[in-house]
Write a structure and sequence with these properties.
This protein is an alpha+beta fold. The protein is about 35% helix and about 25% strand. It has 3 helices and 5 strands. Pathway: Cofactor biosynthesis; pyrroloquinoline quinone biosynthesis. This is Pyrroloquinoline quinone biosynthesis peptide chaperone PqqD.
Length: about 90
C-alpha cells in the first residue's frame, strides 16, 4: 500500500525531459511516451528515489499554494498504474 512515507522513483528506462519544440514535459519509457500535465511533471521532477511522498508534498508546497498530500498520492498512484513510477 502506498502511504505518505513511501518513496517513489522513476522506473528503470523511464526519463522525464522537456520538449523545447512543444514547450512541454514528456515522459519517455520503453513502451511509449506520455505528456504529463504541469502538476504531474512537477511531481515527477521530485521522484528521485530519496524523497518520500511527504517530502515531495513539502517541496511542492514551497512552490505552489494549496498542495495536498492526498492529491500528490493520487498522481503518483496513477503513474504507478501506468508503470512509470516504482516504490522503494
Amino acid at each position: 500500500m502506498i502511504t505518505a512515507e513511501s518513496v517513489p522513483r522513476l522506473r528503470r528506462g523511464v526519463r522525464l525531459s522537456f520538449d523545447h519544440v512543444r514547450e512541454t514535459h514528456v515522459l519517455l519509457f520503453p513502451e511509449g511516451v506520455l505528456v504529463p500535465n504541469a502538476t504531474a511533471a512537477a511531481v515527477l521532477e521530485l521522484c528521485d528515489g530519496a524523497r518520500s511522498v511527504t517530502e515531495i508534498t513539502t517541496a511542492l508546497s514551497r512552490r505552489y499554494t494549496g498542495v495536498v498530500a492526498q492529491d500528490v498520492l493520487a498522481v503518483l498512484s496513477r503513474l504507478g498504474d501506468r508503470r512509470v513510477v516504482a516504490w522503494t
